[in-house]
Each structure stands twice: as C-alpha cells, then as structure tokens.
Design goal:
14% helix, flat, 7 helices, 579 residues, 5-stranded mixed β-sheet
Length: 579
Amino acid sequence: RNGRRILKRARIDHLDHLLQMVDDPTYWRKVFDEREDKEIAISKEQLELIRKLRGGILPSNFFGDQFQLNTAEDNVVLPSAREPKRRFVPSKWEAKTVLRIIRSLRKNPDQRRNDLQRHKAETGPALLWEGDDDLTLKINGLAYLPAPRAKLPTHSDSYNPPFEYRADTVTKDNGDVDETPRTFYEALRRVPSYAPFVLERFQRCLDLYLCPRVAKNRININPKDMLPPLPSPKELRPYPNSKALKYVGHSDKVLSISICQTGKWLLSGSADGTLRMWEVSSGRCVRKWQFGEHVVNVAWCPRDGSVLASACVGTAVVLLDPHAEESKDLTATARASAGETDVTLESDGVAPWDENNSGIVFVKHAFRVTKIAWHHKGDYFATLVKGGANVLIHRVSKRSSQRIFKQQKVPIRNARFHPTRPIMFIQTAAYVYLYDLQRQCLVKKLVSGGNQMQCLASHGLGDNLITGTSDGKLQWFDMDLSNTPFKSMSTHSTGITSVAFHKKLPLFATASDDCTVHVLHGAVSADLNQNALIVPLKILRAHTPHDVQGVLDVVFHPTQPWLFSAGADGTIALFCDDH
C-alpha cells in the first residue's frame, strides 16, 4: 500500500497461545491462513460439510441442496480386478428370444434357406428397365421410370410399301422435307444389310443407361392461388370506371391539365399554343388564350379562395386570373417577353417579373420552362427548365426568384413540394432526393434500381411516393420502410407519362402512351407495422394514339371520385363512377 513494504503480524509465544486456547471456547473452529496472514473462523455450514466429507457422504446433485444419506462403510477397499464370467447372469428375455428362434429352425429347416434366397433376389442385381407395366414400382427409394420406347415403323419404312406410300420425299417430325430418292425391293432377301445398325443400337443403349432415374411429380397449381388475398373491387367503391364526358376543342395534343380547388373549372394546355378553361359539369370551353407557343404545363394555385393560374409558355411562366381575363390573343406579348434578355439571369439566377397592362405576369427564364409545381400554401411555386440544370423557386407576394442549387450535372426531371413539411422532392432518372429547404441539406435518397424514371406524385400524408418509368413500371416508395421501392408493378406495355393521387380518397392513377389509364386503390395505414394495400381496380380507355403518344396527363377531382385524362389526340376525357 502506497509503495511501502507490508509488515507481517507479530507472532504470539506458546504461553499466550495456551492461554488463548483455554479462554476462547471457539478457538477450535479457527484456522490460520498463511497466505493472508490471519485467522479464519469456520462457520457451522463449513463444519457440516467437512464432517460429511470425512464421513464419506457424497452429494447426489451438485447443483442442489439434497445429499445422499447412505454412508460408506469404514475400512472398505474397492476391488480392482474384473468380475469373472461365471458370475454373469444372462437376460431372461434374450434367452426366450433365442429359444423361439431355435424352435422355428427345428420346425421348418428350409425356411432359413428360402429367406436367404429371397433376400438375395431382392437386394441383388436387377434389370435396368424391369417392370414396364408396374409404374408404381420403386427401386432404392427412387420412383421408377419406364423405358422410352422406340418409334414403331410405318408403311413408309417398308421395303415394299403400297403404291400410295411410294414417295420420293419424306416429311420429318420437325417439318423438314427429305428429298433423297428411295429404293424399293420385291423380296426381303434382296434387302441389303443396314450399315448404321450397330451404331443405332449403341446409341439406344446409351440412352437407356444415361437416362436419369428420378421422376419428378408435376405440381398442379392454380395461378389464382398464387396471388395474395385482395379485396374485391366492388368493395372498394367509389372509383372512376366509365367515361362520362369528352372535352373537344384543341387542334393538337393536350400536354397538361389542372383542376381548381372548387372542382368547377379545368385548365388545359396544348401543343396548338392555346390555354383553355373548361366548365367541368357541361364540358363547355369558357375561355381561350392564344400564345403562339406550346403550353407545356398548367397549374392552379392551391390556396383556398385563390383564382390564380399558371402556365409554362416558351421561356416564361404566365400568371393570370382566368375568371377576370377575357379570351384574347397574347402571341405578340409572349414573343416580346421572350425576346427581352437579362444578363443577371445567367449569373445569379434571378428571373425577371414582367407585368403588362392587362395584369398578366410573365416570369422570364433563360431556357424553355417545362415543369411548374406549387407549394401547398400557395405563395411559392417551383419551375424547372429544359435540360433540368437547376430548380428555381418563386414567391408571388414579393415577386422574387432564387436558385436553390448550383448548376447540376445530372438532369433533373421533376420537382415537387412536400404536402406538409418544408421538403422538396427532386427527381432524376435514377434517384429521388429529399431536400430540406430550411436546413438546406439532403434528408434522404430514394433509389429506383434503374435509370428510367419520368414522373412523380406524392401521397397526401407525404410518407409515400409513386413514380412511373419509361419501361411501363409503377414503383411505390414507403419512406418510413426503406429507400428502395416497396412494390414495383409492370402495369403498362409502354412508358408511363403521368401519375396522380386523389386528395381525399385512397385512389391513384397512372397514364401511359399505350392509350390506357389504370386506376388503383392505395390505402395507407397509420400503423407503421402494416404495409400499404395496393389493389388494381380498372383500366380506362378513351383516347387514340397520335405520334406514338397516348395519354399525356391525368388529374383527380379534388372531392369527387372523378378522373380527367389528357390525350395526344387533342381531347380530354372525364371518367366517373357509374354507381
């Protein structure tokens, strides 16, 4: 201790030791430990254990407290020599068995010989293809296979066939025609020997010898039994299942559609350079604006009570009030706005806002605008230009614009705001990035497993995504579960062009260039232990192909189980529930 030398305890002399033995009645229970240099008092339990060990009492269970009570006798020496055989007593039951065998042999002496011969015949060598008639025969536990029989000869194989079978051409089993001329004989003695006879017999023996001796039973399974148990589509009503209206007016393919929050008005943008507003209930076109360029994408402002609408025209985003603006030709205004250039647009990414006398605002961009997505509060919207180099976020109240990324090397195909949180979904061909706009950092990266994603839609709760690929696959992402697709389904024969969720009902739809719209049931449970339920409901057809394109966009009604689809044939179809 403390680096000092440990001193031994002072020893007592013999006189003190004698006095201690006389005065202390428990002295006989004390033992001196030389290692610890101290006296240890033995307890009663330890004394009892020492007494049992000295008496020869052994424990029957080392892990319990019960001990064997029989005590070994004193002065007993265990024998070391083996016990002699004369002391061995045979088993009574074995003696009876041996006696029964001896009596059976004496009664029937030929039985043993017959049993040996039968056993030798059963276990000895046997023919390889023995027992053609008995298909249930089994050899060494393997199912028996009958020998493949040789093909029997026909009239055409005869040396002297009838006249109708004497043809110089022979059609084989695979359809080939053998035009080798044949020779016929009048008598069998004139038929020469068959040269490849030995080779064919050898090949036949090889086929018999090398044939696998395993018979596999074919499992007959009903394909419907392999499908998971899904509810009937009749139990999942309502959902759109029949065409109710058709909106006709565009002279070229309809590129995009959008419905207002009230569900009364529908906007459509077409390749004929027009933006139209339709009345949903009647299918009547109430407004028409001519821009002279393709109206690639249209969208209503999602804020309650707002009447603002947006459209992507050329290199600008047009903001207007469809109810206040009359139908007019804005071709000259759009071209004048597109002709003006701003040097700061390429340097800092600020998009100029230009408002004309009629109240229509043009948000200019450096390149052609392809996508527009509104925030759920209605004050912000994001735009994506052709090539997907960057994403710009615009604020309507302050009329300001800003970039959120540097120049991207991988083209961005789509950008969407999260329905409840300050997160933006950035979609490329192979990944979906979740970008936090407040912290300005990457939250999650979803991997599709391919390089063909084209469109994106988010569930109303924001924890599930669906994407469509160019090879016709629909991918469902559960972000709480994994960063890979929870389910991938090959729903279309060609590429998926658009996907959409219903805001209130558990429905979502996919559109493709094969001129079909698939309606599916997608129920998301609040229980994290329960996966989403996906059930295909209906395949809708209402469009004809045009320029190798079919349905270009789909959107659900905000409150009703209605679905709108925009086709390349220049029409818009409304699908409703017929019940």
